[in-house]
Amino acid sequence: MTKSLIEQIEEAVTKDDLELLAAQLNVEINKRQGVETIRAEMLETAEKLAEQGVTHPEGEGGQGGDGGGSSAPDDEPAPKKAAYKGRMLQHTKNGRKFPWTAALAKSRYMKEV
User: Fold this and answer.
1) How confident is the model at residue 74 (pLDDT cuts 50, 70, 90)?
2) C-beta pairs of 10-16 under 8 Å, 24+ apart in sequence
3) Which of 1, 2, 10 is CA-nearest to residue 46?
4) Are 67 and 26 contacting, i.e. CB atoms less than 8 angstroms apart?
5) CB-count burial class (<10 Å; 0-12, 13-18, 19+) for 43
6) Percentage of the chain with pLDDT > 90?
């Protein structure tokens, strides 16, 4: 089952993830803005589309019955990013994870996970 457009925007982590969704929406984003600012603008646009009945980024027909045949890209799974498989460090205060480097490992707020 495909996720709705709003769910995809909320689950996006990086600006690149949001940029892919913006391309599907035909919305221009400024990558100099913060992730939350970009997400808020895209959610506003997505809510306007939801009011019109469009719940999927590719769906011109939205929930219409005829639009199902031309939505072949929706059937393909989204390409997954390769996860980093090396040593990781976690910041003890905010919980973010980083790839292991000697400089980060020396920090007192980092622990290896």
Assistant:
1) low
2) 10/39, 10/43, 12/39
3) 10
4) no
5) middle
6) 24
